[in-house]
């Protein structure tokens, strides 16, 4: 099945008739269908939700968002109705469904399950399409009911895990991950050949971005804020930053936080939790887990080793 991606007329008609609905509408009506919302986070046109579902039916009016469902547990027989089109298939754990924006949808399934829903706004998809060289015209967007897609699966699971562990979701991480999936959908499911012509950040933009991160690493920096600081769109900025620095903005931010934490561990007597909160980590556990994954040991062990090494050098 395929639907037009970036269809301007449909969006215009939707806005003229009523206010465009978003994922908030889905979560607000979940309980009336017997479903339980377990997790909900959003930033910059990207929403991530997790639900526990009992056998039943769920429907919603047209959303201004592409809807991606990842089957976490259960292997239900799924029936999906999009406008006047109906499909049935078994969706086993680990597979996904992709549904288009601006369409009425009704879902029916026959067993208990847990599912992750990733919503990407049509505005973000249009922006990513334009910055990827597809222009502003509409393209056919494939919307499989069941498909194996490891990139989307691992991105959604990783994003959920990071957000749950940190307890304070990073706007930069959510925005970057969402646009990564949007670009993947355009590449794999729109099946449009495109020429990648863009380059990395101009030197002055790169310096401005790195300085901005250094000055604000202790707070939650969003991808849109970073892009706006360089007078660029979020998708183009993210790709150009990665080409210039060799890693996405969020990974660079985390690496700088860890480097700064190493300085504070060795040169101050600040408690580990103080360092964690000062550098934008949501908790001691979040900081310790991130530090261990990048450095290879816990912050307290790093501090102890550094002080022992310093004492040896001084003697």
Task: Describe what you observe in this structure.
The chain is of the alpha+beta class. The protein has 2 domains: 2-188, Sandwich (Jelly Rolls); 203-314, Orthogonal Bundle (Arc Repressor Mutant, subunit A), CATH 1.10.10.60. Helices cover 48% and strands 22% of the residues. It has 12 helices and 11 strands. The chain has helices at 8-17, 23-29, 122-134, 150-166, 171-188, 203-216, 223-229, 234-245, 249-267, 272-278, 284-295, 299-314; strands spanning 2-5, 36-43, 46-53, 56-60, 65-73, 77-82, 85-90, 96-99, 105-109, 113-121, 139-142. The strands form 3 sheets. The chain has a 5-stranded antiparallel sheet. A 4-stranded antiparallel sheet has the order 4-9-6-7, with no helix packed on it. Helix 3 crosses helix 5, helix 7 packs across helix 8 (234-245) and helix 10 crosses helix 11 (284-295). The longest helix is centred in the last third of the chain and has 19 residues, at 249-267.
CATH topology (level 3) name of the largest domain: Jelly Rolls
Query: How many helices does DSSP assign?
Result: 12
Low-pLDDT segments: 3-18
Computed CA radius of gyration, to the nearest angstrom: 22 Å
């Amino acid at each position: 099945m395929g639907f037009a991606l970036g269809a301007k007329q449909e969006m215009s008609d939707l806005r003229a008739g009523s206010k465009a609905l978003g994922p908030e509408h889905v979560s607000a009506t979940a309980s009336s269908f017997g479903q339980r919302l377990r997790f909900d986070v959003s930033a910059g046109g990207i929403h991530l939700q997790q639900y526990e579902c009992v056998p039943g039916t769920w429907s919603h009016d047209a959303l201004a968002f592409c809807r991606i469902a990842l089957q976490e547990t259960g292997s239900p027989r799924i029936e999906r109705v999009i406008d006047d089109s109906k499909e049935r298939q078994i969706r086993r754990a680990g597979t996904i469904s992709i549904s288009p924006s601006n369409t009425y949808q009704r879902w029916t399934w026959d067993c208990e399950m847990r599912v992750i829903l990733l919503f990407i706004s049509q505005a973000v998809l249009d922006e990513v399409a334009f910055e990827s060289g597809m222009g502003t015209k509409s393209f056919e967007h494939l919307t499989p009911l069941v498909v194996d897609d490891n990139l989307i699966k691992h991105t959604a699971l990783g994003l959920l895990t990071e957000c749950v562990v940190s307890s304070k979701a990073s706007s930069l991480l959510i925005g970057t991950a969402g646009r990564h999936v949007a670009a993947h959908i355009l590449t794999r499911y729109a099946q449009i050949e495109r020429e990648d012509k863009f380059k990395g950040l101009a030197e002055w933009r790169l310096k401005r971005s790195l300085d901005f991160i250094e000055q604000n690493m202790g707070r939650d920096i969003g991808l849109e804020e970073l892009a706006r600081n360089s007078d660029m769109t979020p998708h183009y900025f993210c790709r150009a930053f990665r080409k210039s620095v060799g890693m996405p903005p969020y990974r660079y931010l985390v690496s700088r936080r860890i480097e700064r934490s190493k300085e504070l561990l060795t040169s101050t007597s600040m408690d580990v939790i103080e360092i964690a909160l000062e550098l934008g980590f949501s908790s001691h556990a979040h900081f310790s887990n991130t530090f261990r994954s990048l450095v290879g040991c816990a912050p307290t062990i790093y501090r102890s080793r550094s002080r022992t090494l310093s004492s040896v050098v001084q003697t």
